[in-house]
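Re: Re: token formats

Sure, here are both.
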Amino acid sequence: MLPPLTGLSRWTTTLPVCGWPTFRRVPVRECVVCGGELTGSQRKYDGEACRKVQGRADWIAKTYGVTLMEWQAIWLHQGEQCAICKRPPRTKADGTEETFHLDHEHAKGQAGPVRGILCPYCNTRLVGRLKSAERAQALADYLHAPPATSALGRVVIAPGRPPKKRRPRRKRAA
């Protein structure tokens, strides 16, 4: 009867002709991301998903000085949503989630403290245009207490512009 082969997943085993396993001291190569076993010509990564995760981790570390674990800690602290508009990531048509941005202050070129994780809209349209905390506070004060309301003593609703009347395009003469 053969002995049980439990707990030996990290070492390769071979069964010779006699039926008793022999153990070689050759460790199984593992994926650097998920720890899965590498087969054939795989050198570092188990598959395309692991390669993408490691590429993103390397880029975040190089660009922002934050590890992927620290990024995840910020993301979980924010409740897995944008820090400003509180919107969770949308699912794109191809089934992948929208990529959120790690926001940081642009004090000296790209250098500056990391502030949080934002959706693409808030990062480019809201925070991207406000370069200082004073401007952001001024915008918040403006939206909270508009000067028109205090000057007139009442809220005035703007009617908006009437829609444009579209004329058909003229054909260009040849």
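Second one below.
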Amino acid sequence: MAAGLTAVAAGVVALVAAAQGAVPTGVPVAVLALGVLLAPVRTLAGRRLLRDLRRSRPVPGAAGAGVLGPDEAGLLSALYGRRALRRLLPDFAAVAGLLGGRAARETVARGGGGPYEGSGAVI
């Protein structure tokens, strides 16, 4: 999103510069900005890599998904997102606000006890 807004802003500035007579500067920057806006989010190689990784590592909790270490849990969270977090680390993900619910500050403040009570930490 931020890259798109930056490209739009650069394109507008480039077009203004070209309209004011700075065509050698404005046109190439406008073409570059258009290229950024039209570029795919993922490359073909990136799509293949994600597909292969997802095939070789099943969804957490599915048949064939054994005991996981921290590295594997991180990779599965990157590959499957919230679905993996809900299955691998449900308590942590909920308290940290990673599942789209309340933020950690609200959860801890309203919890009235729990693992963070009395730590003196300000979140």
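The mean pLDDT is 73. The two ends are 28 Å apart (CA to CA).
- S.
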